[in-house]
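ok trying this again, last paste got cut off
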Amino acid sequence: MLWLLVALGYLSGSIPFGVIVTSLFAKKDVRAEGSGNIGATNVARVAGKKLGALVLLLDAAKGSLPVLLGLWLAPGAPLLHVAIGAAAFLGHVFPVWLKFKGGKGVATALGVLLVLLPISAAIGFVTWVLVLALTRISSIGSLLGALLAIISSFFMGRPLAYSLLGVGLLLAMVWTHRGNLERIVKRKENKV
């Protein structure tokens, strides 16, 4: 049963809401426009901020819901919660439905952390909003928000496994944002 929960986490994470939402409501393929990414930021660029916000919520929910189910079914199993959250993140980044070519995982990671480390996730989200408002560069806000969320998580009295998951998610997001980081260094990063 525990492995089924992890598999469910992956399958939930792999739902490509960016592709579905832009196809249904904007009649566009988000993978063929903007940065080509399936996440909320590119959806906002390609199909408008309202649809981008919808994808942000859906991508966060697909990280939150399987972890919530794991907490409900096995409340004293933090390693299981971590495995489900990691699987949901990996599902978004490597979705089976899109030949393992997915998004960068920020919103899905936010959803996972909202359940496991809610105060830290809120710190990360507020940081993202502020940095995005100041710079209009989502990638800087995402990575800085994730960094502050993870640092704060070690002071929240939650299981250490949750903070270590946060570290892993941050490192994975640095990897998924490697192209963005290159463009930031060259001052060519896309703005929202």
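PB: full thing came through this time. The chain has one domain: 2-185.
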